[in-house]
């Protein structure tokens, strides 16, 4: 490791990286290989309409997996991109076992983002819960990327995909799932 100095400013250390060549696996003989026999990447995409949910954080992993199971099973290695087509809800990966985590997360969001007619927001045309919903959506985001390993979403034991509904009125939500890999 060396340190570079230029223009009188000390830069971050420069890292030296050594590359190691690993020969490609032969999927016909290597049972542990995740390479596809053709080696060609493939794509699949599906738009899923989620049923209206009450305000709060909801575990949607089973719904997503049910809808993409057939396509997902054709991938040995890849990525699943999950995109929510809305600005007043969000996606996140979090605890999939204890529903108290979902309730506590909703409590936290409602504590840090003020709501109601006394809140300082100018955007109120769609109701007093709309602008806070936009802020909460921006905090968690509207997209996730999840590894695919041997035909399954490669998440941890206690991880699940949540839809966080930030509006008071339940609304159906659309999610586009794009799979890419081999």
TrEMBL record:
SUPFAM superfamilies: YjbQ-like (SSF111038). It comes from the Eukaryota. InterPro entries: UPF0047_YjbQ-like, YjbQ-like_sf. It holds the Pfam family YjbQ. NCBIfam families: TIGR00149_YjbQ. This is Secondary thiamine-phosphate synthase enzyme. It comes from Brassica cretica. The lineage of its organism: Eukaryota, Viridiplantae, Streptophyta, Embryophyta, Tracheophyta.
């Amino acid at each position: 490791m060396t340190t570079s100095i230029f223009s009188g400013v000390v830069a971050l250390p420069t890292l030296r990286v050594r590359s190691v060549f690993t020969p490609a696996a032969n999927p016909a003989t290597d049972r542990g290989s995740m390479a596809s026999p053709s080696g060609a990447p493939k794509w699949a995409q599906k738009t899923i309409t989620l049923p209206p949910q009450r305000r709060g954080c909801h575990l949607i992993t089973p719904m997503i997996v049910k809808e993409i199971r057939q396509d997902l099973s054709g991938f040995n290695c890849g990525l699943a991109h999950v995109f929510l087509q809305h600005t007043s809800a969000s996606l996140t990966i979090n605890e999939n076992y204890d529903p108290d985590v979902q309730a506590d997360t909703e409590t936290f969001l409602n504590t840090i983002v003020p709501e109601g007619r006394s809140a300082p927001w100018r955007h109120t045309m769609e109701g007093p819960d709309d602008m806070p919903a936009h802020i909460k959506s921006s905090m968690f985001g509207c997209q996730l990327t999840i590894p695919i390993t041997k035909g399954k979403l490669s998440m941890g034991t206690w991880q699940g995909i949540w839809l966080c509904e930030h509006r008071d009125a339940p609304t159906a939500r659309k999610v586009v799932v794009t799979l890419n890999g081999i």
